[in-house]
Amino acid sequence: MKTKVAIAIAAALMSASCAMTEAPSAAPQTTPPAVLATAENSQAIAGQELTLKQIMSDQDWVARSPTNAYWMLDGSGVLYQQKREGSQISDWFHQPLDKEAHQVPLEKLHNYAYNDGVYNADKSMLAYTFEGNIFVRDLSNNETRQLTRDEARQSQLVFLTSGELAYRQGNDFFSVNPRTGLTKQIAALALRKAPTANSEPKDFVAREQQQLIEFVQVERKNKADRFAQQQQLQANNASLAPEPFYLGEGKQIVATSLSPAGDKLIVAISAPQKWREDGDIMPNYVTEDGRVAAEPVRSRVADAKPVEHEILVLDLESGEQTTLTYNTLPGWNEDVLAEVHRENYAAEGKTYKSEKKPRPITLMQDWGWQAGAIRWTDDGKQVALMLEAWDNKDRWIASVDFAGKRLVSQDRLHDNAWINYTHNEFGFLPNSSTLWFQSEADGYSHLYVKPLNGKTKQLTQGKFVVEDPAISSNGEFIYFSANKPHPGNYEIYRVRTDNGALEQLTKLGGINNYELSPQEDRLLVKHSTALQPEELYVQVIGSDTATRLTHTATEQFMSFDWVAPEIVPVPSSHVADPIYTRVYYPQDYDPNRAEKYPAVVFIHGAGYLQNAHAGWSGYQREFMFHTFLTQQGYVVLDLDYRGSKGYGRDWRTAIYRQMGTPEVEDLVDVVKWAGENTNVDTNRMGTYGGSYGGFLTFMALFKEPGLFKAGSALRPVSDWAHYNTGYTSNILNLPDNDPIAYRRSSPIYFTEGLEDALLINSPMVDDNVFFQDSVRLVQRLIEHEKEDFETAIFPVEPHGFRQPSSWLDEYRRIFKLFEENLK
Questions:
Q1: How large is the average pLDDT for residues 509-517?
Q2: Measured between alpha carbons, how far is 380 from 399 in angstroms, rounded to an integer?
Q3: What's the start-to-end Cα distance of the chain, in Å?
Q4: Sheet of 133-138: strands edge to edge?
Q5: Residue 371, pLDDT score
Q6: What is the pLDDT of residues 443-492, one digit of tens each?
Q7: What is the 3-class SS of 121-168, one letter each residue?
Q8: In terms of Cα–Cα distance, which of 331, 321, 336, 333 is closest to 269?
Q9: Taking each helix axis from N to C terminus, what angle separates 33-41 and 4-12, rounded to the nearest 10 degrees?
Q10: E strand intervals along 271-405
Q11: Of 161, 190, 302, 186, nearest to 242 (Cα)?
């Protein structure tokens, strides 16, 4: 029989070389985190029984883990948010390193909201916004000064090389002296044509009127004189606000970035973009007034049209406005979809003729960014932009030759599938014109540096993924987390930017995220294991111990005897790399038992997400449900199928133009492995998953009948043409360009294959995966005269359920499905 401690250690992939300690206010604790979880479990409360109602109840009973944690400016402690018990509201707490935590009073909160603040050149001042207003902290005397207090929202703070603080308010830019408070406007953007004294006559009648009528002529002359005088005043009187930059009609501003030198402004504009059409609605049947509400929702990828951004350089000193063209970027006019078009044309009996033509190009949109796609050097003399092609096949980092008025390509990342929508961090090293950036050029997200006029140098390499890079203040190091020890174990590292020397800073096991202290001598580590929700630890850089700061998991949660999963590299019959899978065994598991075990396979959502790791799962209810299932005699498996995060570019892009094909192949391999290695009866296996997991439940049941005797699809995608553009067009291109990919990848085209029991669980006010997805698929099943399927609807739930009663109803149905079909 497997002991729980052994399984926990396997799950957490521990390294015993780094110990954990409790905060000074608590008893010392040197137990590694995986074992720590089981040690705390040893305090089990007699008679505790795990039930579905307990699992699906308000999750305050599990833990109210700290969120949004960051350092105090002096490094003496940390700040974090914690959900208020029994409420959706979160409160802020200050946790000193040597004392108990205390709540930050609301009247003082503005003094601590500096997490995203910006420093001036000598780091004597820090500026930040709180509730849309600007504050400046003088670090020499630790005094905070409020610079604005109004209904307007200030943003995009940047300290100029002059010492002034610049910010954006609407489409206007201002600078303020942080000591005197004197404010002046430095730029204004106007989405209209430049004004003129008199408009030209628009037709014959107007021309004749102006020639015949003396009064009209006099009026036009007077207007011209007044206009000329105002223009001269604007040009010669420095007390006036600068004249706006007129960007033209029928445009929208996408992004702006002001140079720290205060002399240039980069602006991206496009044609107006609508996120929906009038017909994009979702009925809401349960409302306060008892009527049906037509809720607005996003448009579908099937309705998407290409978008292009126009990049402008605005010279704030001369008033000159320059448009940068993309024709200096390598591949800017390549027909990268030629093979896709040929296949789709051939399917219709047509011949496709390839030709070069400009591709729509935009600023890069990374899902995790805060700083945006335009980055300046500290002195404001150089700028770099990250650009992407609308077809998702290219990403460029380009600098701007201001004298030559052109883009200069510094790096091109091409992918025949699609450029990742994460792992795109970049910028300049401090006080340098050397770029640093992430790239999947060698197949994994790694770090690179490149002088603007020099060669690219790769800093990290290997079969692991670099996450969350942060640059030291002197540019000597780049800090990051990475799954170098094992795909499921993320530790903290730093790499030298001059020679690529790599140093591992933590060896805690599990999953670790971090915040570097302002003094750069400590790490605030956000640590979790398979059995422990995320908690805060502090580790001195160079030390081999970490001190625990928070204890938010409840005694009730820790009292249950949770089953920690093993992480198993299941061999793939299709690719060289294994399919990493969490395996949960019953506590009395007997590999030689005469009666084989029934089993359930969980399929995680999001597609690009990692769940077979050694940390706390974002699917915490499912994690607890899996322990519940083992108590009922099931083996549970949870795989990171191809397309999942954490395993590199090839694993990510295996689903290109064929969503649901490699993933189902991986499901087949996992089922086969379970039958051969875990004493599981492959004739008594079920599956379930939500969102992308619901989609794959459909595909498994429709395309591989008999693989599972029963499956439950939660909030499932049934037709990718109805999903959003940002996600879907990466993987399947656009429906008009690649209908084959959509028909190959959408379950609604394979409904005739259903032979096994199916439960569809669909929230009705889901603005992510529309309820219509389930409605249309059910109609197809009815038309195929299928019998063994059921549909459960949840009238008040969005994509992520909110009501414990809905969670309970859903999982009772799922459990009943398995009990009736697998036992």
A1: 98
A2: 12
A3: 23
A4: 118-119, 125-130, 133-138, 143-146
A5: 83
A6: 999 999 999 999 999 999 999 999 999 999 999 999 999 999 999 999 99
A7: CCCCEEEEEECCEEEEEECCCCEEEECCCCCCCEEEEEECCCCCEEEE
A8: 321
A9: 150
A10: 281-284, 293-296, 310-315, 321-324, 361-363, 374-376, 383-389, 394-401
A11: 186
- Answer yes or no: are the C-beta atoms of 55 and 627 closer than 8 Å: no
Query: Residue 45 in 3-state DSSP?
Result: coil
Q: Is the dihedral of CA 111, 517, 645, 309 positive or negative?
A: positive
Residue 308 is predicted with a pLDDT of: 97
Q: What are phi and psi of 672, to 5 degrees?
A: -60, -45
Q: How far is CA 720 from CA 49, 232, 688, in A?
A: 42, 59, 19
Nearest to 11 by CA among 506, 615, 465, 601: 615
**Secondary structure class of 731 (helix, strand, coil):** helix
Closest CA to 559 of 13, 3, 61: 61
Tokens of 145: 């000064």
Assigned token pair, 666: 């991986």
How much is the CA Rg of the chain, to the nearest whole Å? 30
Those residues whose C-beta lies under 8 Å from the C-beta of residue 488, and which sit 6 or more positions away, are: 13, 567, 580, 610, 612, 613, 614, 615, 646
> For residue 793, what are the β-bridge partners?
762
Residue 117 has pLDDT above 60, yes or no: yes
Pull the structure tokens for residue 402.
């201001």
Q: What is the reported pLDDT for 386?
A: 98
pLDDT, mean over the chain: 93
Percent of the chain with pLDDT over 70: 94
pTM for the full model?
Answer: 0.92
The three-state secondary structure class of 143 is: strand
Q: Supply φ then ψ for residue 59, to 5 degrees.
A: -75, 5
Tell me the DSSP string of 533-589: --EEEEEETT-SEEEE----B-HHHHHS-PPPPEEEEEPPSSSSS-EEEEEE--TT-
- Output the six-digit token pair for 735: 């429906």
Domains in the chain with CATH codes: 69-193 (2.40.128), 565-822 (3.40.50.1820)
What phi, psi does 711 have (nearest 5°)? -150, 145
Both tokens of 191, joined, read 């989405």
CA distance 818 to 476: 56
d(CA 604, CA 591) in angstroms, rounded, equals 27
Report the range of poorest mean pLDDT among 13-17, 208-212, 352-356, 365-369.
13-17
> Are 539 and 525 in contact, with CB atoms under 8 Å apart?
yes
Report the C-alpha gap between 518 and 694 in whole angstroms. Answer: 44
The DSSP result for 394-416, as a single string, is EEEEEEEETTTTEEEEEEEEE-S
Residue for token pair 């126009």: 310
